[in-house]
Amino acid sequence: MSAVLSKAEVAMVWRLFRADAAHNRKRIALTVLAIAWGTLSIVMLLSFGEGMKRAFHRTVRGMGEGIGVLWPGATTRAWAGLNSGRPIQFTDEDMDLLKARIPELAAISREYSRRVPVSLGAKSVNARVRGVDPSFGPMRNLIPSAGGRFIDEADLAEKRRVVFLGDELAKDLFGAADPIGRTVQINQSTFLVVGVMQAKVMMGMYSGPDKGQATIPAPTFKSMYTDARPGNMVYAPVSMEAGDQAKSEIYRVLGKKYRFDPEDRRALGIWDTRENQRITENIALGIQVFLGIIGALTLFVGGMGVANIMYAVVKERTREIGVKMALGAKVRQVMAPFVMEALMMTVMGGVLGTAVSLGLMAVIAALPLKGEAFEFLGRPTFSPAIALSTSVVLGTIGMLAGYFPARRAAGVNPAVSLRYE
Amino acid sequence: MSEEPNTAGPMILMRGIRKSYSTGRVEVEALRGIDLDIGGNDYVAVVGPSGSGKSTLMNIVGCLDTPTSGEYVLSGEKVAGLDRNRLAEIRNRHIGFVFQNFNLLPYASALENVELPLLFAGAGARERKERAEEMLRRVDLADRMDHKPTELSGGQMQRVAIARALVNRPAIILADEPTGNLDSASGQGIVGLFRALHAAGQTIVMITHDQAIARLASRIVQIRDGQIVEDRQAAA
């Protein structure tokens, strides 16, 4: 069995296509444009979807990837002789207890917080000040901008009065000046600014965006407010898969200490950002699929145009088809040129559409777009997956647009088509 | 399957061939019981007025159409009940068609037109080219191989068509009014070519209504109202 088309046949198909093109120049040009338009819309929509997905990812990263936030709740069922509705409160030692007992935890940090005035000279901002451990920074993606650092172990050990400022808070206090090495007043104490957070996009937030907060070492916080208890704790499991195990271990360990049923999910609140990530990813995927379907439909309309042309071509070439059959062309040898021709038109439109899309994306990438909306929308981004899915859709549409007219060609009765008019 | 023409025994054997069409409510019987044997190296002219059924007969002989009933054996193979691909293969190997209006592909050169049956047979590029060139030389078109049909005269086009019909060494050349679209000088040239082919051993079946051309065949079959009314050897 030879290949579907020999080289000579392919050359002949190309010549046929050129003959058709000369003959139906306008119609073919319009159809190729329709396919190009369809390709443009599918590529642009998918790329917008991809850009949005990546922007989503960035905002999720703004919160911290795969982390959990743990806060005390109240029991909802009686346990070990204790009544239900009993509030739970964390103590300073809980972090060490969890760290020691649960190997699934890679890192954990306390988080004390209180809203207090932070001031520089006469300027004062009522900001949220939180006391945390050094692992809090990497977990929550509080990345210091150049020249600064986050709270470290030495700060903790020596209960230093150092502060890491959110970028917005730093701007409110210092304006354009570099705050690093300068001091601010927190609760009438002087703090040395050691770092300023890099600007980031953050979607999930539990106590206001990080950009407006001041972060200090947990022991320093505790020494200022001796009655403070950790409002919550932030942890990171050793891996995404270990997240569920870590969660149930936390309930077990703290349930034992505070005497509540480890199955009582209201006794502790856990915000598992992995769930958010999953949901966000699904939403992003859903949007991309939706946009892709819209693009594919546009392309489908272009495909109808190709099929229409091919039906007309089959009709015009009825006698020629009859001649080929008389000379011994088998069914596939009759069909293949029409499928090829349709594919050729589709590929030409596809290449044109993709080229225009890439050009458009380059232009959009060069535009100085600013603002919150663009941070969440992102910019259209081309990816190999988009190239692949567009090619698959184009190929399928081209094949179908050629196949059905070709089947009509194969159904030509040679005896009838060769009859004289 | 041999590619050489099979000259032993009847090449065409037809028994009780009937063909009817239904055009709307009317049933038209185009062929009403045809018995016909054509042997190797016969040169048969099929003559008859228009509407006599000769074109239908040619379509059945050429495996372009199948009879409603009756038996047709071509080169020892029963044609009834074969699928389209098998029929295409039989046409490709056993039958060379020559049409009144040439039916060359307009966008292909003379050489490519002649290569077409070999292409459908799956022959390689070199074999196709060599054999097509050989055939074109045989019909005196060695200097016109790369010409498009529009650059050729009617007689030249018909000779390209004959080269195309011959290129797969078919058992039968089936010619349907081959001189119908030609001036008389070109027509004479084509008729002379057929005679030469016949002299070289080729079996030819030709439809014509030109008595002068029919008389040059070795056998004349006359058809009227879907039946053979006369079958005689030509005076020659």
Would you kindly provide a written description of the structure presented here, covering whatever features stand out?
The complex is a heterodimer of chains A (421) and B (236). Chain A is of the alpha+beta class. In chain A, 55% of the residues lie in helices and 15% in strands. Chain A is built from 14 helices and nine strands. Chain A has a six-stranded mixed barrel. The longest helix of chain A is centred in the C-terminal third of the chain and has 44 residues. The two termini of chain A are 38 Å apart. Chain B is an alpha/beta fold. Chain B has a single domain, classed as Rossmann fold (3-Layer(aba) Sandwich), CATH 3.40.50.300. Helix content of chain B is 33%, strand content 29%. Chain B contains seven helices and ten strands. Chain B has a six-stranded mixed β-sheet with strand order 6-7-8-3-9-10, sandwiched between helices. A four-stranded antiparallel β-sheet of chain B has the order 2-1-4-5, with helices on one face. In chain B, helix 4 crosses helix 5. The N terminus of chain B is likely disordered. The interface between A and B is medium-sized, with 27 and 33 residues.
In short:
The complex is a heterodimer of chains A (421) and B (236). With 421 residues, chain A is an alpha+beta fold. Chain A contains 14 helices and 9 strands.
Structure characteristics:
heterodimer; A: 421 residues; alpha+beta; 2 domains; 6-stranded mixed barrel; elongated; B: 236 residues; Rossmann fold; 4-stranded antiparallel beta sheet
Coarse structural class of chain A: alpha+beta
Gap between N and C termini of chain A: 38 Å
Oligomer: heterodimer
Name the average pLDDT of chain B: 90
Strand adjacency order, main sheet of chain A: 2-3-7-4-6-5
CATH architecture of chain B: 3-Layer(aba) Sandwich
H/E element sequence of chain B = EEEHEEHEHHHEHEHEE
Low-confidence stretches of chain A: none
The outline of chain A comes out as: elongated
SSE run of chain A: HHEHEEHHEHEEEHEHEHHHHHH
Q: How many distinct beta strands of chain A?
A: 9
Most residues in contact, chain pair and counts: A-B, 27 and 33 residues
How many DSSP E strands of chain B? 10
The termini of chain B sit apart by: 35 Å
Radius of gyration of chain B, whole Å: 17 Å
Share in β-strands of chain B: 25-35%
Strand order of the largest sheet of chain B: 6-7-8-3-9-10
